[in-house]
Amino acid sequence: MKIAAFAGGVGGAKLADGLAQILSPEDLTVIVNTGDDFEHLGLFISPDLDTVCYTLAGLANSETGWGRAGETWNTITNVEKLGGPAWFRLGDQDIATHLERTRRLKEGQPLSQITRDFCKAWGIQHTVLPMTDSPVRTMVASDEGELAFQEYFVHRRCEPKVRGFRFDGVEAAEPAPGVHEALETVDVVVFCPSNPWVSIDPILQVVKEIRKPVVAVSPIIGGKTVKGPAAKMYAELGIEPSALAVANHYRTILQGFVLDNADSNIESVIKDLNIKTLVTDTLMNEPADRKRLADDVLHFIGSL
Ligand code: FO1
Question: Whole-number mean pLDDT of the chain?
Fold first, then answer.
């Protein structure tokens, strides 16, 4: 079975890792959100690409989910001493990634080529693709005006109330090389448990349409997100945060939906949307949970 997995953020990276433990490199392509990318300290930073790659390579910081394990912070500490911004925590190993990505981008190398080379260097067999090689920047409309994504997410810790999202540059953005081919050759597309608004929607706006069955894993469990602001965003947009809200978010393109045992009470409502459902343990607290959930999802897909 060939899968294309859409991922962004820590939850997305974890399920992508679980799928990569089961599927061969020929059978899994991970397509990653780049709307969170930004320039900071003169460096081009692609947080979701790095989170997916570090996770697949076994290099990720297991506490935060982002950045590298065993990190030191000498550079950012000294940047702060010199009066520079330290709110976006860049570890010493992580900075190497941003330096080399920035150097290559300035030489004119496309982000997809850079990602391919970095995956090789990190020993990642599976294909990881940015959704596009063109710049797309998620802007968050809030009660404090429009904020760049990392300003909202990290600097302001998601405090501003969201009013909407804009993916600056998405109209002109073509899918990266390999994305269209993957979407044409896979059997199923899996939306990993990532934020629908700011991780999955940007990818959907770039790829425009998906002519394959789609299965989504809810990032919301019991009305809450394990990590990140998806539930808060739903609430601030006047939508009751729940797995049902996520199923509705994708309703027009979903064949299957995976929700947590905690939400078994809403399974019938989702079935009424003519979407097949799997109720299982969708929490991935331990590394072994990633493969377990991926296995459940793949068996579910097999039953569609
Ligand atoms: N998230 C934080 O909440 N605080 C940080 O200081 C932070 C630093 C950081 C550095 C590199 C990187 O790749 C990701 C980082 N993240 C941080 C996470 C990042 O903001 C989010 O993972 C995505 O943008 C949203 O999924």
Answer: 98
Question: What is the CA(295)–ligand 1 centre distance, in A?
Answer: 28
Number of other residues whose CB lies within 10 A of the CB of residue 130: 28
Distances (CA, A) of 287 to 5, 18, 178, 221, 230: 18, 8, 29, 19, 23
Ligand 1 centroid to Cα of residue 172, in Å, is: 26
Contact, 207 vs 167, CB < 8 A?
A: no
Sequence-ordered list of residues with C-beta below 8 angstroms from that of 19, at least 6 positions apart, any chain: 3, 5, 28, 30, 190, 294, 297, 298
Look at strands 162-168 and 137-142 and give their pairing. Answer: antiparallel
Could you read off the pLDDT of 239-280 as tens digits, one per residue?
Answer: 999 999 999 999 999 999 999 999 999 999 999 999 999 999
Tell me the torsion sign for CA atoms 277, 51, 23, 19. negative
- Output the residue whose Cα is nearest ligand 1's atom 12: 47
- Domains and their CATH numbers in the chain: 3-137+170-303 (3.40.50.10680)
